[in-house]
What we know:
The protein has helices at about 1-70, 75-105, 115-135, 155-169; strands at about 115, 150-155. By secondary structure, the protein is mainly alpha-helical. It has a two-stranded antiparallel ribbon with strand order 1-2. The N and C termini lie far apart (about 80 Å).
Amino acid sequence: PKLVVFAGYVIFFFLQSLVLSYRFAFSMKQATEEAQQGLRAKTEFLSTMSHEIRTPLNAVIGMTHLLMRNNPRKDQEENLDVLLFSANNLLSIVNDILDYNKIEAGKINFESVPMNVNSIAQNIIGGLQNKAAEKQIELVVETEPRLTRKVSGDPTRLSQVIYNLVHNA
């Protein structure tokens, strides 16, 4: 009788552990599916919002360029420069969000084209000069004089990296 009771307890505990492990596995699977669904919803939302913001932003940039061609007064030109710089910064942020979503989805493509690193650095520094001046920071670009030839790479990604490094500095 004691052996039967002991065997009954062992079987009972074994079955209980099976039930608990099944419940745990089921809960874990449900939580994983919900998390993945949340990530998909977030990615879809960010992509949609980025595209929706980019359309009017491109119109703002285009209209700013048109206004700059109409020989504005000096004070208007300064305001248009600030507007254009800010709109381009916002467009850059929107593009970063879209790139992030592409990276998450594994759909980002890298180019390999001839590019001039000095020219890219000069353009980025030129675009950030106003922001640096506002903060009373001297922003100077120094490039390797021997780097005169074009190199092969992705100018968009290189621009993003250099811009983010300089902007965050």
